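Notes to self after the call with IL:
- keep both proteins in one doc
- input above output, always
- annotate only the second one for now

Protein 1:
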Amino acid sequence: MKKIIISAIAITFLAACSKSFLDTSPVDQQTEASFYKTPAQALQALVAVYNQLEIGDYDNIQLVSELASDDCFGGGGTSDLVWKQWDRFQEAANMNIGIWQKYYTGIYRANVLLSKLDGVSWGADTTLKTQYAAEAHFLRAYFYFDLVRMFGNIPLATSPLTPSEYNTPQAAPADVYKLIAQDLQFAAAKLPATAYGGISSADYGRVNKWAAESLIGRVYLYYTGYYNQADLAGVITKTDAITYLDNVINAGGYGLVDSFPRLWQSSLSRFVGEDNKETVWSIKFTYKGLGSWDQHNGNRMQVDIAIRGQILLPYYQGWGAGTVSSKLYDAYDGADTRKSGGIISIADENLSKYVLSDQAQYTGYFWKKYTPMDEGNAVDKGGNFQIDNYYDNVVIRYADVLLMAAELNLDANLSKAQDYYNRVRDRAFLSTSYRKTLTSDAAGKSLIMEERRLELALEGQRYWDLLRQGMDVAKAAIDNSNGDAQFDVSFPVIKQGLFKIPEQEISLSNGAYKQNPGWTN
């Protein structure tokens, strides 16, 4: 982390382009002594924290976790290694360095802002101070949650570090989760509680009370499952988590879009649009970097997962990473709209002009969710097809909230759990005829976990859902051997689902950091 902290001290506040509140003037000549004086400067600093959400390339956590799951293979070109390494749990010297740097830079920026808020001249009305603090707490929790899920044993900083503190030892995961829980509790209590219908379009992409309460549910389920604990680090009980999620459902104003395929750009003229009533929180992207590699305005993951090297209408081109497993495609009932709504099938869509070329681990299936479309592609808008794709990353969807609440209510209020589950399944089939009956035991839990797989496929949830059910469940799902060696995967239980800490960070720590089990330095 030393390198990250040193580089972050010389922070430059760069704003996202044309994303409403994020469209804030850059600051490149301010010193720390002259900054953090006005509410406008505090907003610029907050935007700098948000901007870290946009950083990422082939190492986007959503893509990485999908590759590690049973739903995708590494794919890419035959000479591409990094995606296959994540898929096969192999290692390289500095794999994950981009992820590590991204999140610790975001944490540093959040910590700086939180440490400076008292020095801002807010005047008599401190409403903005409270809101900015709550947003910074949420973002810090979000960054830490991704880090601790991926790496387990990570350094924990709650304030800007001095040089003597750069080699802070790794914290126990429970301590990290305690901070996450406390940050999210603060955010849920202090963030605006405006129901969806009343949210200004200028505030889309900003976190609110409902995003914080939803993330509490996600963190609670993962921590209590993965670590086999009764509550979230002694801070949030199961009853608390249920209350938070029920509040999102009953007071947040969100709902399910009428048709699942309409959630995604691939539905073209039927696309319901971004920031729809199902989007509890999304990371905003835009094409308006217009080919500048110095900006980070585009969704880089989109080019990674698009069909490799060719335009097959209506889809645009990309690098073919994360080829979708036939097991996932075949898991859908034929009447389930999520099958063709979320996955491209070369055969079923009669994409006869497809050319295999150097595509690795070809399965015949690619991501439909998030794939860039030929209509309105980045190049036609004056940008670069690699860096200017602009579909927002939906981090929390209302359907996920319903399924989390159904899971938590299984043994607390079975009828409520059934209702939440039915809403998701009815939408998927556009019918009530495909309902399944939940029970308050392992069988009921299994139904919900399978529904999560089908509903949230390729949205970055599957790997974590497997891990929180236990290493035996993860291994049974992820292990793959079908007679074709290129698809062989063996989940290494010794690694406990954790990723490799970058060797550079181990080295820079001068012995303070220890590598995760099963990985070499």
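Protein 2 (the one to annotate):
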Amino acid sequence: MKKRHLTLAVLAGLLSTGGGQTSVYAGHDENLQSYTIDNIVVEAEQTINQFGDTVTEQSYYRTGGDVKVITREEIEKRHYTDLTEAIKRIPGVTFQNPGYRGGEYGYQTYNNGVLINGDSRVIVLIDGRRVDNLTSTRFNSGSTSGSKSTGVNIDQMIGIESVDKIEVIKGPGASVYGPDATGGVINIITRKGAVEQKGTLDLSTGSWHKHNYSLTLSGALQDDPTFHYFGTVTKTMSGDTEYVDGETGRTGTLGGSRWKEEAVNIRLDKDLGKEQSIKLWYNYKAGKDGYPISTPRLKYWNEAEWERIILASTVGKLDENNKWIGDPVYGDKKNPGYANLYALDGKVYNSFSRFKNNDWELKWTFDKDNGMESFVRLYYQNHRYSSRDKYKWSLSDDPAADYQARFPGGATAAELKQWIRENLAPFPGGDPALLQAWLEKTGGTATEPTEWQKERNQGIQVQYARAIGKNDVIASLTYDRAKTVAKSYDWDTGKYVESTTSRNTVIGYVQDKIHITDNWDLTPALRYTYYSDYDYTGNAGFKGKGKSHLITPVLNTEYLIDDTLSVYGGWTQIYRPVRQGDYTTLHGIYKTPLENERGDVWTLGVRKEFSQHSALAVHYDWTRMSNAIASFPIWDASIRRYKSTAVNAREDKTSFNITFDHAFDKHVTMSASYSHMDDKWRVKSGWNVDPSWGLNGEDDINTQMNRLRPQNHYALNLSYENQKLYTGLLINWYTGNNLRAFTDRRFLVLDWNINYSFTPDLTGYITVNNLTNEAYQTSYSSYNGLGSSTMPARSVMLGARYTF
């Protein structure tokens, strides 16, 4: 074994005792069997190749780059309850969460999103298979025209107990997964039953009446050790979440944010020989999550402000005779504290979002060569979504007529305020019975689908891989058919109208990883992508951009300079087709069709070992999009004002990550990191952009966009383990926040946990999220106002895990 291999093995072994806390080297996984990849034999004590890359069952797809792996060991020692909790400790990965768990169907702004190096074009995979739906309206443009999200809420995909590893690839360093993975890839690798029969029972309870229950069983049949099984059943629930208001420092309750979810996962594997196997996988996850849209702003949470907010949004403007003369006033800029009206959604009207996923996959692996699989895979996804969004703080759809009917001849300001006080204002101490009476009296504007919105994916993938001399060649072909069946309410007819949208995709891929020398890999690849036109049926059909196809090249390389230093670099061409949601806000009277997104991404990185205990990794990428889709305030002559509109624009984005891992001794390890990202946009000529955005001034559009996220992200991951005791602390520090979008210039968020093994089979634990009860936000909505997306306050969970 080379000196480098020995050094990395020692470092990996030390860091794995800290629960896999290193972000460069993965810890030991007892279910990982020996296999060969890139001429490296992978055993339990060594899970890295000669370049310092963490090796997993599917890492042969990778072509170099910044890759982080979260192991099952870390998941269990840190007691992550969902994928977001696990992934947020990785440098360069950020989440945009409105402060609650659920989300409104069809609105990206009000759903959780993940970004890698500031880019939302992230591909989510389960066992190397894409799980997005090209016809999805789960995350359409809504109020964020041209959203580039792939339409996946990762916390709704699969239960955390079913996850063996999480592979996060920054940038398009695994180009096999598609030409639109600009930000990167999140690959969720599921658990497989080992030979040993084993079961676990995990129970925990804590803040806000939150409870988690999970049961897992795995092993192999006694009379047939080649037949492996794994199964898990989980259930999680919580009452209303608390939050710390960033403007006042007070703790409030996000009424209506309670949720309940359950999951079942079954995986069966049959080994047909040394190189052949069959896998049958089934996944079910369902939940009902409350979503009050926005956290209340407590400085407006009093009787006087409620009267002002509701009066403005109910009857609009009144003249000196108390006659209605204008439209109701919506939005925080015109009606400060407007976001408090959303409290009615969750607390009074019990708005909710539901989802139910049923997925299965059948995979026949007919050969393995140098760790690479040749297989045929069939899959089917059936995802259903439903919601009730009941809101009614206006008197009616015609405020003027309703006001005059209720108050013939007008009403004095005092009379109107008294009526609001008795019937509307949910200020502290208000009578809920009056609110219910008002609801029954005025009805309400409601979206209550009688049937689920259905999203389906079905497809087949064929892959063939072969090692030919110094060449590891992979070729694959995937056919996917995506379909959405939706029902929307037609207010003109008073009936639900059904529409269907379908789109077919073919992705072909050829990659050759050339081992030029023992220290140098060069990996060229070609991708072919075909997208059919949208097949749409409904009351207002559209054909969209039309079918398109393109071949995109990729070139990556890794080079080992010496036993302690390696570098990597790559270039890939990006291609993302225009999606259904992008068409909803074509520019005003021009109706200019949007073009498919095109661009290039360059990556460069270096890894350096300073000793057998310390390692440094630096990653840089540059994305240059010639046809990115973004929303700008464009002049619309038909309405004679600037309107936020989706247009094609040029985007120039750079990101930088640096990570330092160190093992102080066999008990204490750490991983420290820093991330920074900058984005520059230029609107193409011919558009009249709102001058208040200052495109030619110092405070230009790029300044505006970069204000919507912290400029700097520092993270420190510490762990200590000594015999029966394990404890870990995750510190996230966000700085450079602009006060136009955040309630503070910096946020320091701490998550801590401690485990103690009473016996080899019984472990007790405590987890604390947001240890210092910090008021912080990860997203901003100008419509809802400052601090309206505050994240949860401090929560404590007490639990036990029993192995049998």
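Annotation: The longest helix spans residues 3-16. The mean pLDDT is 80.
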